[in-house]
Amino acid sequence: MAERALQSLRDTIDEKIAGSGPAILERVIDTFVEAERDRRAKIIVSGVNALRELESDLNKINRGDVVHYTDTGGVAAQHFTKDRLNAIKKGKDKITKLEFALTKAMSESATSDDIAKLEKAVKSKGESPKGGDDEE
Question: pTM of the full predicted structure?
């Protein structure tokens, strides 16, 4: 009797496994979808962190080389060297490009191409890719 119950259990298990093709396929799909969601989320987090870093770097240089103050302590005038102005402009351009890539990647209609562009922008910290439409 015990053998019959055990065989019945094995038969039931075999039947469920044989008929579980769609359920297994669904689990596989869910696993891949979840992995891609995690990957995209990590890229977006990296993008936000890179943006914060670029903004911090810009704040460090976004002041005049020579600053004149009034007698009350307010800034009367700031003078910038050409190199400082170029560094500020480049910093602002990098921030703008990274913000654009982040906005596209976080939109509801984001494509894998948008995520790839954000990933590339994060790796280059917002600089234009070589061979692209660089401003020279």
Answer: 0.73
Pairing relation of β-strands 66-69 and 75-79?
antiparallel
**Tokens matching residue 128:** 């234009």
Residues forming a β-bridge with 75: 69
The single residue listed with the structure tokens 């234009």 is: 128
Contact present, 67 and 78 (Cβ < 8 Å)? yes
Q: Which residues contact 64 (CB under 8 A, 6 or more apart)?
A: 77, 78, 79, 80, 84
Q: List the chain pLDDT tens, one digit each, 136 residues.
A: 678 888 899 989 988 888 888 888 999 999 999 999 999 999 999 999 999 999 999 999 998 888 888 999 888 899 999 999 999 999 999 999 999 999 999 999 999 999 999 999 999 876 654 444 443 3
* Partners of 66 in beta bridges: 79
For residue 46, the number of C-alpha atoms closer than 13 Å in the C-beta half-sphere is: 19
> Rounded distance, CA 7 to CA 127, Å?
67
Residues 6+ apart with CB under 8 A from 125: 50, 53, 54, 94, 98
